[in-house]
Design brief:
Blueprint (H helix, E strand, L loop, with lengths): L2 E6 L2 E6 L4 H7 L17 E6 L2 E3 L9 H5 L2 E3 L3 E3 L3 E5 L3
The structure holds FE2/S2 (inorganic) cluster.
The site of FE2/S2 (inorganic) cluster (FES) has 13 residues, from loops.
Protein name: CDP-4-dehydro-6-deoxyglucose reductase
GO molecular function, one term: CDP-4-dehydro-6-deoxyglucose reductase activity
EC number: 1.17.1.1
Length: 91
Amino acid sequence: MNKIKLTINNQTVYHPMEVDVLSIARKHFIGIPYACCGGGCGLCKIKVLSGNYEIGMASKTALTDDERKEGYSLACKTYPKSDLVIEIVRI
Ligand code: FES
């Protein structure tokens, strides 16, 4: 199982790749706000500063097309495909 290095607000953890960012953060006690865990509320918004990832199904109101283009994502629907550096977005 491949592991990735995930850096969230300057805190780095290592975790298997096949898991969403919110689950990784919760496992390592990194506080990303969340509510629905289903891509609907937008509370878990993050900005990806570097790395490759896929975004699962998410509401267009929780994450707009413009936000996607600017590197924003939702932690609960972000699946790392490489090491990632992200920032938590406080909304
Ligand atoms: S927790 Fe609601 S969109 Fe991620």
